[in-house]
Amino acid sequence: MLSTERDLKRGGERFPIPxxxxxxxxxxxxxxVAVTCLQELIAKTDSHLVxxxxxxxxxxxxxxxxxxxxxxxxxxxxxxFALQLLSAALEEAExxxxxxxxxxx
Length: 105
What we know:
By secondary structure, the chain is mostly helical. Helices cover about 70% and strands about 0% of the residues.
């Protein structure tokens, strides 16, 4: 995304500020990787994992947000997004588990 090599290029590619598309693409990629990993992890482990993941997720977010000095609203939004992502991964993993148990292959 951000690169000092861009300064040596001509045209629009030399601007060091990423485009909205680049940022959205990176965020989408991170979300897809996170959800995929969570689905695999959750599908193969015990039910106590979810509560441990939630607690650890909230603790890690607080630790990572503190140095950034985010306002309360931004910190709350980050926490809500992370928990929504975890919930979406849980739902998807449960759906895949149900589909696999119904599919006699």
